[in-house]
Amino acid sequence: MTEYFDNKIRVFAPATVANVACGFDSLGFAINQPGDIVEAVLQDEPGVRISEITGENGRLPTEPEKNTAGVAVLALLEHLEETRGIEMSLHKRMPLGSGLGSSAASSVAALFAANELLGRPLKKGEMLPFAMKAEASACGSPHADNVAPGLLGGFALIRSYDPLDVVSIEYPENLCCTVLHPHIELRTEDSRRILRKHIKLQDAVIQWSNLAGLIAGLAKSDFDLISRSLNDIIFEPVRSLLIPGFDNVKGAAIEAGALGCSISGSGPSVFALSTTMDKAYEVGAAMKEAFSELQLDSDIYVSAVNKKGPRVLQPEEDPVQPDL
Amino acid sequence: MTEYFDNKIRVFAPATVANVACGFDSLGFAINQPGDIVEAVLQDEPGVRISEITGENGRLPTEPEKNTAGVAVLALLEHLEETRGIEMSLHKRMPLGSGLGSSAASSVAALFAANELLGRPLKKGEMLPFAMKAEASACGSPHADNVAPGLLGGFALIRSYDPLDVVSIEYPENLCCTVLHPHIELRTEDSRRILRKHIKLQDAVIQWSNLAGLIAGLAKSDFDLISRSLNDIIFEPVRSLLIPGFDNVKGAAIEAGALGCSISGSGPSVFALSTTMDKAYEVGAAMKEAFSELQLDSDIYVSAVNKKGPRVLQPEEDPVQPDL
């Protein structure tokens, strides 16, 4: 059994669902699982060292400058003008390229762990720029729609990037999420490349009217309004072409009683929202069954919306386990 | 002094501010003034007769089929399969082509009056299709972003047209509006024609992020968030070219402490939101002064957000008066 001292910490950071159907590049929320785990130790020497990475078959580099967790903590240490350093091991408990904010979960877990070990000099929101820097290193642009909900928990709206303005959005306590992670991989770049740079004005009006409806529905816990608003008429029709069986999975989720169902981030994971955990499990079973018709494997994760972002884990605690 | 019997009624319907900066073709709200007044009398004979129109220099036709108030009530009577009819006089207390929902105010006042005289067979929301039919007759398309807030009061989101889904949006009680109506006229068609049919995806993301912020700010009475969100980066830069002095008027409003300022509907009226009536008057004075530098005249209307839409007036009551 691992022993824990004040200079050592184990942190979980949640997966996140960006876009949320109608909120492309604007809205995201965190879920209680899956996610990543970082174990970090405070060091007297400056800098960042990644001693180990488990999961994802050793595909991630341990050089801190090439790893989102490393990039984020290096930026934090530089900002704080720290003479101490951080050694960490990263346990990838969620797949890369899944559309669930895998890189964000790593950097958020690492940042939170480092900040705790350093005596909590920053609030969670103040770490956002360092997590965004890590996102930029991973995918070329400093997106915040995974790292913001990942750090803050709940639903986060990126109202503006210049200046950065992240708004926490109220939502109903009992909202639950089902995620189907198909065992295929999509690169965010590919999923972005197929999008057009211009859209029809009349489509944009429909999209932003749905987003406005979703925000209003979340704010007043109007599940019916949330359900009516969970439509993406611009991106889902294009991106879903890269996700085999998408229409069947979505149809099965709705049929099973989900409030709505769409692509998580840039895919290939698919999320559905429900009003109870029981319903979310039923929806998950229906989604998995629909997807299995393709002879492809998948994992289903069911959880409530994550309220607080990253958290310190007990020594043997393991919060990540596929439900189906 | 006019005598009032059960078969006669006098109704006020409010002006409305559509678009609300970032909610193009999607969001609108009603204000306590200006607006239109309809006097209506129940008749034993079927059909609609418009006996008189005051205001706007007799520019509006009294043939019911050519007048939004007439079209709306004809549609209502037909829907109800009424054997009785309505005679009405319409008092235009707000300018045509002002961007304040002038045609909507007339049809909403007429519908509400007729429905009351007929024993209130419909709820306010149920009259929306008839008001939309009148809008279609006036401007070619059945827009709801003036008639919906006009009928229901407050802020109304048109989440969807097909099927029609109008959502009342929560807002802070003390929100006040200043309207500058420049004495120039813009036809909605002209103001729509200069808009492009396609927009940049990156602009759309900024626009819908602001709309999401506005809805969230209204719902949680966060005036600072409302203020930060009141931006229109797509339409205002184009449409404001048709409004002389717009940049100066907006600058003056912000300088005087308004939460935000943009074009009302398709213009030329300009609206600003404030947190108190006192502030809204100060903002109005600053806007009027900025506009007067062009040697053009203008009216300023200051009022709280209208809560309930149309209402029955007392015999001599006159709710419309420019404040400056």
List the main descriptive attributes of the protein structure presented here.
homodimer; 324 residues; alpha+beta; seven-stranded mixed sheet; four-stranded antiparallel sheet; 26% strand; globular
Question: What is the element layout, followed by pairings?
Answer:
The structure is a homodimer of 324-residue chains.
Chain A: E1 8-18, E2 27-43, E3 47-54, H1 68-80, E4 85-91, H2 102-117, H3 128-139, H4 147-152, E5 155-161, E6 164-169, E7 176-182, H5 188-193, E8 198-200, H6 201-219, H7 223-229, H8 236-239, H9 246-255, E9 260-263, E10 270-274, H10 277-292, E11 298-304, E12 311-312
Parallel strand pairs in A: 3-4
Antiparallel strand pairs in A: 1-2, 1-12, 2-4, 2-5, 5-6, 7-10, 7-11, 9-10
Seen as an oligomer or otherwise, the chain set is: homodimer
Radius of gyration of chain A: 19 Å
Largest interface: A-B, 38 and 38 residues
How many structural domains are formed by the residues of chain A? 2
Pathway (chains A, B): Amino-acid biosynthesis; L-threonine biosynthesis; L-threonine from L-aspartate: step 4/5
Family (chains A, B): Belongs to the GHMP kinase family. Homoserine kinase subfamily.
EC number (chains A, B): 2.7.1.39
Binding site for ATP (chains A, B): 95-105
Q: What's the gist of this structure?
A:
With 324 residues, chain A is of the alpha+beta class.
Descriptive notes:
Chain A is of the alpha+beta class and 324 residues long. Chain A has 2 domains: 8-169 and 307-312, Ribosomal Protein S5, domain 2 (2-Layer Sandwich), CATH 3.30.230.10; 176-304, Alpha-Beta Plaits. Chain A is 34% helix and 26% strand. The first copy, chain A, has helices spanning 68-80, 102-117, 128-139, 147-152, 188-193, 201-219, 223-229, 236-239, 246-255, 277-292, and strands at 8-18, 27-43, 47-54, 85-91, 155-161, 164-169, 176-182, 198-200, 260-263, 270-274, 298-304, 311-312. In chain A, helix 6 packs antiparallel against helix 7 (223-229) and helix 9 (246-255) packs antiparallel against helix 10. The A-B interface holds A 23-27, 157-160, 165, 167, 169-170, 195-202, 204-213, 215-216, 219-220, 225, 228-229 and B 23-27, 157-160, 165, 167, 169-170, 195-202, 204-213, 215-216, 219-220, 225, 228-229. Chains A, B: Residues 215-292 form the GHMP kinase C-terminal domain.
